[in-house]
Amino acid sequence: MxxxxxxxxxxxxxxxxxxxxxxxxxxxxxxxxxSSTSNSTSAVSSSLPPISQVSETVQExxxxxxxxxxxxxxxxxxxxxxxxxxxxxxxxxxxxxxxxLTAEIKNINxxxxxxxxxxxxxxxxxxxxxxxxxxxxANQSDIKWYxxxxxxxxTYKVHVENKYHAYHTGEYQTHVYAYATDNSYKALSLPKxxxxxAASEITGSISNQTAQxxxxxxxxxxxxxxxxKVEVPIWSKPDQSDIKWYQATKKSDTVxxxxxxxxxxxxxxxxxxxxxxxxxxxxxxxxxxxxxVSMTPAxxxxxxxxxxxxxxxxxxxxxxxxxxxxxxxxxxxxQxxxxxxNNQNDIKWYDxxxxxxxxxxxxxxxxxxxxxxxxxxxxxxxxKNNGEKIAKSAPAPKFTATGTxxxxxxxxxxxxxxxxxxxxxxxxxxxxxxxxxEVGGQDDIEWLKGSKSGSTWTATVDIAKHKSLxxxxxxxxxxxPDGSKTVxxxxxxxxxxxxxxxAEIKNINxxxxxxxxxxxxxxxxxxxxxxxxxxxxANQSDIKWYxxxxxxxxTYKVHVxxxxxxNHAGVYATHVYAYAQDNSFQAISLPTTTxxxxxxxxxGSISNQTAQxxxxxxxxxxxxxxxxKVEVPIWSKADQSDIKWYQATKQSGTTxxxxxxxxxxxxxxxxxxxxxxxxxNxxxxxxxxxxxxAMTNVPSKPLPNPVVYSQLDVSGSIGFGTFAxxxxxxxxxxxxxxxxxxxxxxxxxGLYMHSIGQYNTMVAxxxxxxxxxxxxHYGGKxxxxxxxxxxxxxxxxxxxxIAMVAYPYTFYGSTHAVVLHGMSGxxxxxxxxxxxxxxxxxxxxxxxxxxxxxxxxxxAGSAFIGVNYK
Length: 870
Hints:
- This protein is mainly β.
- It has 8 helices and 63 strands.
- Strand 40 (500-509) and strand 41 (514-522) form a beta hairpin.
- It comes from Pseudolactococcus hodotermopsidis.
- Residues 36-93 are annotated as: Disordered.
- This is N-acetylmuramidase.
């Protein structure tokens, strides 16, 4: 069973842990539960409270009296009684009185940022673990929970180091938690500890010196940010020309080392200056001078001489000769490292070859050094049999690449560049002539690759590609085998001047009103366009800018026509503008030209002929008064009874068109005569005959909508059947014939069909032959339509179709005749002679699919019979 104690809001509460009183905040309305079967110590939560809740003030219990543990009966009785806070505290203290916890801070080293925490802790059940949380930041962002180590004397110890706390300086907070084996714990807070840091420090010494090396050992201490790097600059020359910054190698937290080698300093002898620099992560530095180290080896009796010979700049070769060798202990090998690049990326170690006279020779070839030109460096290393090396710097030649550039701009369109090159053959991969115009900076630069002939390299500048006049610059670069380039010449200069322009007027036709302008123009960068403005009106209201066309002979031509200038007669002005590719231009004015413009002219042609139409295209030239109208009379009858005067439509300044349609000529077939007339504003006329156009297959004119009749309106009988029940075929035929203007009635057509034995003679009703015979008898024409497409095309042409159909376009079990006329999409308009029963729009495909298959209906050859004019 458990009792629950409700607590109100308080600022803090005193809790006894392991007999130690610690002040902690209490959360409002917190329920604290106490077990009736355990002592008060175990009733305290064993979970670790937040550090921020632990007060710095720790009060040790002074009451030495410990009440007796209550009996079971007493505990049970207490379950039903009100529990007082003082009684709870007493019970807690009584059960934890045997536990102790003390601690102190020792060995504070403010400069190193460290201190020790010494802890004494006991518990009747034994100590399980001691933890020490330490932090400096107010928000505990640098907190570390140290685990104390038990010492030989029974105490516990923690060593606090600022490196675990982001190297923070200032006041450090230290708490101690001692955990018993039953997971209960006791805690206390120690006084704050102030940690500061001394400045960064670096010290060092020189050791292990040999003839060519020595070691630098450094002891460093960084600041709170920690060590970023340690560097050791060493040099032997007063001007520091051989300085090298060695990056020290870390051996431990505070020890760094560097090994100096004279090979990094051109094997110089003398005093070597040694400095050392410590750089912290925050950028601060500390440094020290370790003085000078003398690198003057004992006098050696070994000697040799070095000679450079056989230098050839063009071949790119020379020899290094090592002679007069006096080497104790014998020679193992002789090597000659050679390079030109400052970073030695082209270095090659040659093995010198021993000669009969005891000397050694190394053959140096520039091709082994990426073809580089410039000052070369040679060293010689003699390795003795005992492994000792003797080094000397040897004289070395300088390979050069020079040239003389000449520019020939006598041809302003194609400028020739010539370079006479003196360079090692193995250095030359290619030669380039970068060339650009002064206009626009280097936006038109072109790297011209040279062509070789012996030692001469040439390139041609195509000025048209640069599209600029004026001053030009050319440099010359030699590309070496590794792709690097060196400047050979930078003094190429030339100037491109404007071209030429001339023009003359030819082929003047004053009466017609035309002339030609012939132009000669050139530019080093090419002609982009030539324009010729021409006008007659003083205010230039009739100006036209002609674009000249280039001719086969290289000249340019413009044809001036007065029709482009309102057919004006009088004095014409002509200018010429020649534009270069850079849009610069030259301009000239030509002498004036007088045009009378008295002649008119008209010509034409026939095109786009179909069965029913053709086009007439006319080119007209008016006189100075201008065009009033253009007419085209067309006819097909010899007596011109079907003549029509078409008014031509203007398409452009000189072009007019007409479309002839046979419907305007009663759909006549035959030869159509075509004339054309131009009438000027002053009343003068010119004409032309375009001959005859054969129109032999002109379609018949479309039929009007059928006249509507109903067989039910006709009384009486013909043959052995009543007209109302059998007269669908004569009624349908009469509807079509009547629309053609033929004066018939359903009954009169029925009488004719009966007279030829095709209606109400052998069977009730009329046959297909009744239709074809009656239409022919009354002056019409029939066409048998045996496919869906044939029916559709016939209807699309505007004609009518008499269709023999079956159900559902008539009563089931019978056939019927209807009239089809007019299409809309895929639908046809059906006129039903049986009182309009199925009259209306229907799918032509459906009507076709339900055509009659009766032999009597088909005796003309088809169930669908087209009707049009004869």
